[in-house]
Structures are given as structure tokens and as C-alpha cells.
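#data-curation
PF: Archiving a pair of folding outputs for the training set. Convention for this channel: one message per protein, sequence first, C-alpha cells after, nothing in between. First:
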Amino acid sequence: MIKKKVVYCEMDFLQEFLNSYPLFEPNDESLRLVDAWMSFYQFFCKADIVLNISASEFKSLTNNSDWLRRIWKKSIDNQCGLEFEKDSFPDISLINGENADNKVLNAVFLTTKKDEICNEKAKELGVFVFNPEMAKHCNHLFCDSGTAFPDEKAKDWNFMRGLTGPKVRPPLNISNSMLVIDNYLLCDDADVDFQKKIDYNLKPIFQNLLPLRLAEDETYDISFFVGARSESSHLYDAQYNYLHTMIQKLRKDLKFSLNIFIGKQDKFHDRSIVTNNVLINSGHGFGVLRKDGETNTPTSVNIVFPFFQTKIAWCDNTYLNIIQTAKKIVDRLHQPNINCWGEYEKVNKLISYYNPPKNVSSQPVFFSIGGDDAEHRNGRFIGKIDLSQIKDYRRKTYSRK
């Protein structure tokens, strides 16, 4: 299973960012900048990093940079991956819905391009794209932005608007795939109860989570995993149609696929929504607001960004466990007690990316760029290599000729 975030990083971005470590001054803004810089650096140092230079070029740069030597040391210690794709590095400005593969659609891009290009490509592909200046103003990625219900400031799901405003970069609705996990979401036999539950809960959640549109050839994948609460296929038909219609009305320009997996076994315990960029946990589930649009049930909601977190230890593993369990349920589709409504043949790109076929390695490649003696560290072969023998296994290229 994939266990790290892939980060496509232009070397110009990395050098500019590393050289921008803020000088400390005793005021609130300098403290915020220091915190943002350190948080982003820590995120970077636990990712699978792909650079647009060669290994030999990186080696020469480490001679004059303590920061780069630190990154190299972390790759040796298996804290991060470090790969070099000088000739096949994806140019973010050239990627579109037609040539973007699952790896690209689950990656983060670090570039020196202008804000307009970064924001445009983030919206088209549903991925996070940063330039050095934007990396200094994304503190919300490194904390829990959730809330408590009921609360004076969060009486309904519209508290999420604070993460989608024009000043928030990247906003919450940058994504291209989603899993909704809630055993009891479809449990009401009465259609009117189900519709109110959706209208008061999922409708405002989706309003804040779904992008307005993606690139022309890109489809937004939505998969529900719920517990079986009825033997009536007619009931599930009606509920599927209601959800499909709701999404169509919310996002008229968004091309999407929708399927609902319903099972009596292998059910999830927690209630969660995950996209390729965010994890939302709700203690009471996504039906916390009842028929009158209010709740008297004390509960909490977590909104965190997996892989960016360094202080919330449970975040990454929770995210990966959800996706892995979803894969197990999808694999059992044609066995007893597992049914699917909608596009059952469509596998959510979030599930297929993080759970590659067993014959495809999900481990990053580590290269040694110094020392004459080969050695083993952490079970990986680290040694001097002939750079001319490095082969490019990418099937697609986005590099500007």
C-alpha cells in the first residue's frame, strides 16, 4: 500500500523556500511565518520527493547546503523518498485531464509558477499546487480545523465555509475523489426522514467539499460505504437517485461517478469522509442534524489534512486504514452480503491508487549519490550507481520540449 504523499518539487522552488527561513522578530506575524515554514518543511521531509534534476546535480548542491544534506540524510533513514526525474518531470502547466494518471492526481506540486497558474491547475486537477509564497500562508493544513456540535459558532455544517473562502489557499474543495463512510446514513425507511437527513447534513457538506468543475476529461469519483438496514432494493434505488440528483443540482458543471456499497459485514466503525486531500471524522456521523435541522447530541468533528500533519499522530494511519478497508469491501462485491448501487464497475481512483496491484512496488527508489562503498541500511540497498543506467519507467511525459 502507498504510505507517503508524492511531492513533485521543482529545484528552484526548493532552493527559494529553503533560503526563505524567516528571521525571528518578536511579533505575531513572524511567529506565524516561522510556524508555517517549519510545518511545511516537516511535511516535505516525510513525503516521497521527486525532483526535476539529476542525482549528480543534487549531489553537487548538497556540498553547499546544510538543508539539502539534511533532506538527503532523511531519505537514507527512510523518513522520506528521494527520486530524480530530470527528463520526465511533469510540468504542472501542461498536465490536463487527458494525460494525468492516478499518481499525478494524488500528488502535491511545488513550483515557482505564478499564483494564477497554481490556482488554475489546482482547480482543474483537484490537487494542491504551491509556489514559495503560497507555502508561507497555509497554516490551516497543519492543524485540526474541526468543531464541536452543538456550539454557538457551529450550529450547522456551514462552519466549513471558513475553509473555502477566497483568502484560503488551498481551499477545502480542492479534490478529485471522495469516500463517504457512515453505516447509518441510509438507515431511515421513511423517504422523508432520509431526505431531511441528507438536506441538513450531506448537502451543505458537499457544497463545501466538491469543486465547481474539473478539467474537461476528468471525472470526480464519489463512493459511499454504508451498512445494510433494509431488504428493500426499491428503497436503495430511491436513495441512490436522491443523492445523484442532489449532486447534479449542486454542481451542474462537474462530471462525476457515484456508487454506493452496502454491506452487513466488514462494516466501518467510524464515520468519515475522505478526499484525496482531506479527512473528516464525525463522532455522531453525517446525520447529526435531525428533522428540525438542529441537534442536542454532543459530538465533535475533525477536519485534518493527511500527510501534512506532523503533530496529529493518528491522522495518516487513520486515512490509510479507511482506504484499505474500502478496498477490501470493493473486492468482495460479488460475495454474499455486499451489494452496490450505481456504477459498480467504476473503481474510485483514491482506492486504486493507494492499493496498487501486489506485483507493483509501492516503495520509493533510493539512490546513493556519494561514497564508493555500497551498504545496506533499513533493509534497502544503498550504494554508488552508474547514473547512465537509471531508466525512466514513466509511461507519460509532461515535460516541455
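PF: Second:
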Amino acid sequence: MNQNVIELLEDPVFLRYVLDNETRQGMPHYSSSIHPTRQEIDEAEHILLTLDEVGGIFSDEEIVALKNRIKSLIEAENGRKNN
């Protein structure tokens, strides 16, 4: 896993793209400061979609932190939709 994959996994725009079925049409979305290859995008998507199944990539603490980041993003999005 390289720096672009890590940045994608930390990018709220990319997290929203991967986890929200409504935004999964068309080209992947991510912050303009990241310049990943298709392979890096696919790797980051795979990690997010199989987070509980991947072993040896992240420590337990890193998985918890990523899940918390995802949860915060979802809660923030839901808050904006409800306002």
C-alpha cells in the first residue's frame, strides 16, 4: 500500500464515493490534491468494502480509527441532509 492509497482512505470525498451507492456512478471522486492510478483507486475501494475481512494490512487500532472516520463522515452527512 502506498501513500496515494492511504490518502484515499483518509479522504472524505473518496469515502463518500465508495460508501454511498448514489454517488458510485461515473468516475471515482476524490480530493483534487490526490493523483491516484486506477490500481490505487481499486485497492482503496477493496480495502474499504472488505475492511472487516482484510488481515495484515492495518493494525487493529488503524482499523478502529478508519471506522471512526467513516462513522463521523456519515453522521456529518446525515446532519447536513436533516438541516
